[in-house]
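User: Hey, quick favor. My workstation is busy. Could you predict this chain's structure for me?
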Amino acid sequence: MSVLQKYLFTPHAPNTAAGFTDDSFSVVDLGRGRGAFSLASSAVTELPRGVLSASFDEPNIQNRDELIDIMLGTVEAAGLRNKKRWSVALPEGAARTLIVALESKPSSRKELSEVLSWKIERVIAAPASQLRVSRQRLSREAGQERYLVTVAHEEVIAEYEDIFEAIGWQAGLIAPRHLGEAQWLAWADSAGEGMMISANRLGFSGVIVKGGEPVMVRVSTCEPEARIDELHRFALYYRDRVEESSKAAVEMNCLLVLGDIDENEAQSAVADALGNRPRLISAAGFGFDLAGQPIKFEQLAAAAGLATMAWQ
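Assistant: No problem, here it is.
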């Protein structure tokens, strides 16, 4: 089991999951057979403006009653109304993911919590007492202890938990959208490094995974026409960091592109920055045949990624 899988894993994880994108809400009931996944059931509903606005430090849910109606209608359309156990991918921006490096190994759990809280507060600019923090230890790099940390404001998480309780859901796992999407890199059947790029309303999110571990997470705010240039800079930054720390060349083997970014342009930008051309991976490679369907993989990717944990 990879570190990313351990980080997201909960015992007896359900194969039903939900996810929020910029403008839609989706639910999936995932099946698996003969090495591929399938959608036993799924549904997507567009979110009208004024219902939900993802934010890290401001209220997200603007119309509670309408959002509840949309969520119940979506699970009804998918035939999943009686399902109670869910994993949920939050909309991009509602939570943040950090990779925190420590100069030395803490002597106790208390010291670890204190050091992580101090580092998180420096980045987030909010007291740790106001934050919901999840962490998972990563392997050491350049002699440093590292942790994968997800952070959300307690008040923001409480908004979503209130909704889940109102509709009778037991949400055992609540994770950022980009971690649900990056989960597909664990199923890409490709050794070495992999990159996931997911477009959103404000720019894009990028996750690089190596040896089953997230090694870099980047949220880029930019105009749509600047995404490819920003992706090129992201890849260059990663290359420079790897070469500086390990003196080794980057071998990016696979690339998953989601949302409103041309995947061939993205592939070329990454190849130009890194010096090797990663293989594009797609929904079809995981067993999803959505050709001619009104549902797009990027609408389901985060939720379905969390649902794959039922087999891990």
